[in-house]
UniProtKB/TrEMBL annotation:
<feature type="compositionally biased region" description="Polar residues">
    <location>
        <begin position="482"/>
        <end position="492"/>
    </location>
</feature>
<comment type="similarity">
    <text>Belongs to the LytR/CpsA/Psr (LCP) family.</text>
</comment>
<feature type="region of interest" description="Disordered">
    <location>
        <begin position="447"/>
        <end position="501"/>
    </location>
</feature>
<feature type="transmembrane region" description="Helical">
    <location>
        <begin position="89"/>
        <end position="113"/>
    </location>
</feature>
<keyword id="KW-1133">Transmembrane helix</keyword>
<dbReference type="InterPro" id="IPR050922">
    <property type="entry name" value="LytR/CpsA/Psr_CW_biosynth"/>
</dbReference>
<keyword id="KW-0472">Membrane</keyword>
<feature type="transmembrane region" description="Helical">
    <location>
        <begin position="125"/>
        <end position="146"/>
    </location>
</feature>
<keyword id="KW-0812">Transmembrane</keyword>
<feature type="domain" description="Cell envelope-related transcriptional attenuator">
    <location>
        <begin position="201"/>
        <end position="374"/>
    </location>
</feature>
<feature type="compositionally biased region" description="Low complexity">
    <location>
        <begin position="449"/>
        <end position="478"/>
    </location>
</feature>
<feature type="transmembrane region" description="Helical">
    <location>
        <begin position="58"/>
        <end position="77"/>
    </location>
</feature>
<dbReference type="Pfam" id="PF03816">
    <property type="entry name" value="LytR_cpsA_psr"/>
</dbReference>
<dbReference type="InterPro" id="IPR004474">
    <property type="entry name" value="LytR_CpsA_psr"/>
</dbReference>
<protein>
    <submittedName>
        <fullName>LytR family transcriptional regulator</fullName>
    </submittedName>
</protein>
Amino acid sequence: MASRLAGGRAQRDDDTLARDGGGAAARGLQRALGLTLASALVWGVAHLRAGRRVVGSILLGAFGLLIIAGAVTAAVFRPDLIRLAVQPTWLSAFAVGILALGLVWVTVVIRSYQIVRPDGLSTGAQTAGAVTVALLCFAVAVPVTWAAHSTYVYKDALTSIFRTGDSNGRPVNTADPWNGQSRVNVLLLGGDAAPNRVGVRTDSMTLASVDTKTGDTVLLGLPRNLESFQLPPGPARDRFPYGFTGDGAGTPGLLNEVYQYAEEHPDLVPGVTKNNRGPELLKATIAGILHQRVDYYILVDMRGFADIVDAIGGVKMTIPEDILYSRENRVLKAGTRTLSGKEALWYGRSRTNSDDYTRMGRQKCIMRAIAKQADPQTVLTKFDRLAAATKRAISTDIPQELLPAFVSLSSKVKSGAQINSLQFVPPLISTGNPDFGLIRKLSAQAVESSGTKPSGTPTAPTSPTTSGSPSATPGKSGDPSPGSTKGPQSKPVSLDATCPS
């Protein structure tokens, strides 16, 4: 009997010791996981607690330097960061750097757990600890992988849209990005492509002349149905010595037909590759019409415009009156709201109960709204989606090397620069018989009144297919068409004044 009682007491003592030991192991695992989580948030905590002061201090110091460097860079060098964000080489370096940082971070998490993990854990406890640490590593790896992937997508779009070198493939002088000129002139084109239409019609054509010191901008808008203009000297002028006729049957051609005609007739622009013929001939043609230098072009396919607007989160517009879109028999109601991409496209394209010239004015207001609202921070935070949209929708001949200069210039345009607009529409001109002398005179006056006066006499591009300034026989101005804009406007008007806000 006594031996049985002694054996029972011994068994109870063993059970108590097992329970106490299991509880201690559980508390040790919780402590280890807590220190591992703390080290994932602040490097070195686990090492310092485990008595490894040298390594812990190094990790803590490195983490502190990373935080301080990031904060100082974001606060002080933000403009430089934005300029670096449009340079493919720096984007590659950033992607590699963020992946390396992620690898170091995961290593710190794993090693922290290893040095504070208690001995004698059961199989279940070991599994629970390993799973928890794996989840912590996953939490670190996901944002790092996303950042590296997004950077790759952005870089791919950047290199797809912007090529290196100038139009002839020659290196660009980044020390003097504007070639000594006080203004840079960019032709903004809206391509009205569609599944049921062959080729591209440039239904929106605006030359943006930007003062490189102040950012002051004047927009010179040409109507899509302008006629009786000359093509630049060379093969194009030789084929149409009396003005562009398009179909060759003697009927005057329209300005929005030049782009596609050049793509279909490579002999007009010899030496220029496919998909570049249209822009080159149109740049030279518009340079001659306005007698203004055309440095670069940007073409936005209207089918992709909606995607770009959606990518930046929409565009806020004030609509003074209802706009009917006959294709869908819907109405865009008057008022101030954030338009989706589809609504913004609808706002800029509809001419039901209005005309081409009213539509041109609305398109300028969209440009103004996007320029004001799509700040670099918004673009960069949504660059993954925006990169995919712009890759589909935009083509340009702006060199990669000039992107930092253009980013700096765009910040000037955003920060209070004056944006004026002059549209060459009836009754200021007759689209069928334009007074090109008047157009050139008013263009020169508009540019000279916007910021710093341009240096040198404006000329067309100097390539064989775009050299010189086309001449044209001046016609009569006036002759307003039905539904045209209210009275001739011969001076540029501020978009801040003309666009509802």
